[in-house]
């Protein structure tokens, strides 16, 4: 199947599951949670989780769908908080007003908190005997040594304009959860540690590639933004594209080392490298 068609098919599966989970309650908080999750986003993280699980031989949706949807809710929580006035102060996300513009800062903050907690409830619903390993992995990735640390670095008024600071910020804020999505699919499918190591290295490179292409697309669509440390700001357009290609090569190398069954991850890497939105 052509890669874009495959991504659309898996996105439909994830979207349907997310709608089902978020329809469990009709309180104001769930309304705000649904607003930021439903009908938006590429779902690349849960799709990577699902495809890695399937490529690794997994066949039970009751094992993997709660995990994949929990990962997407973690991602959406981080976006809600990222958009708040005390953080990036963004007015639009995924083509519509951000949560705090619609519901107010208080409810938006609580909706993010709700998604984060509900995500871990979903992770615990997986039928897999490996779910605790995934829960621990994702808790580490999203906590004060992971996404939270990356977000703090991203909002500093006085950022270090260095390659090291830039890489650490985006590795924690973006690459870790993309890596964790791939790891989760592999862990639930019970792959060997040697395979998991290669998938982890490939996921880290893919996550950095995703961030660089995001930065390049943002510059094309919005221009440079004040107080935002990005690859184009530090390296310029051409050198950023060069780094994107290098990360893509690295990701494909490690996915190849993991095994031919992971050809789909190599194809997704090429798709992300060449994406235009």
From TrEMBL:
<dbReference type="InterPro" id="IPR008949">
    <property type="entry name" value="Isoprenoid_synthase_dom_sf"/>
</dbReference>
<dbReference type="GO" id="GO:0016114">
    <property type="term" value="P:terpenoid biosynthetic process"/>
</dbReference>
<keyword id="KW-0808">Transferase</keyword>
<dbReference type="InterPro" id="IPR033749">
    <property type="entry name" value="Polyprenyl_synt_CS"/>
</dbReference>
<dbReference type="InterPro" id="IPR000092">
    <property type="entry name" value="Polyprenyl_synt"/>
</dbReference>
<keyword id="KW-0479">Metal-binding</keyword>
<protein>
    <submittedName>
        <fullName>Geranyl transferase</fullName>
    </submittedName>
</protein>
<keyword id="KW-0414">Isoprene biosynthesis</keyword>
<dbReference type="Pfam" id="PF00348">
    <property type="entry name" value="polyprenyl_synt"/>
</dbReference>
<keyword id="KW-0460">Magnesium</keyword>
<dbReference type="GO" id="GO:0046872">
    <property type="term" value="F:metal ion binding"/>
</dbReference>
<dbReference type="GO" id="GO:0004659">
    <property type="term" value="F:prenyltransferase activity"/>
</dbReference>
<comment type="similarity">
    <text>Belongs to the FPP/GGPP synthase family.</text>
</comment>
